[in-house]
Amino acid sequence: MESPIIKNVGCPHACKYCCLFFMKRITTSPEPWGEFMDVKIWNKIKNPEKYAEKKLFISSVTDPHNLQEEIYGRTRQDPN
User: Fold this and answer.
1) Model pLDDT for residues 40-78, shown as the tens digit of each residue
2) How crowded is residue 10: how many other Cβ atoms within 10 Å of its Cβ?
3) SS3 of 11, please?
4) Where are the beta strands (DSSP E) in the chain?
5) Residues 6+ apart with CB under 8 A from 61
6) Which stretches within the chain are classed as H helix?
7) Contact at 8 Å (CB) between 9 and 23?
8) CB-based burial of residue 38 (10 Å sphere; 0-12 exposed, 13-18 middle, 19+ buried)?
9) CA-based angle 12:18:42, to the nearest 5?
10) Residue pair 12/33 in contact by the 8 Å Cβ criterion
11) Residue 11 burial (C-beta neighbours within 10 Å; 0-12, 13-18, 19+)
C-alpha cells in the first residue's frame, strides 16, 4: 500500500470485535463508536499525476460496504 484513502471515520455497525474504536479520538462526533459515520468530502486533487502507477487502499479504517457508501458514493467518485 502506497497511499491510503480514508473516506469515512466511524462505522455504524458496532461490531463486538472491532479493533478500530481508537479512531474515535480523531473525530468530534458525540456519539459512541459504532453509532456514527463522518463522511469525508475532499477537494479536487491538484496533482493527480503523482498518484499514477500507485496502489491505493480505500477504507482502511471503516467498512467500505455500508449504507453511507450507497448514499454518498465516495468510492465511486473520481477524486480528481
Assistant:
1) 777 777 888 887 888 777 766 766 677 777 787 776 665
2) 23
3) strand
4) 3-5, 8-11, 36-39, 56-58
5) 6, 9, 20, 23
6) 67-72
7) yes
8) middle
9) 55
10) no
11) buried
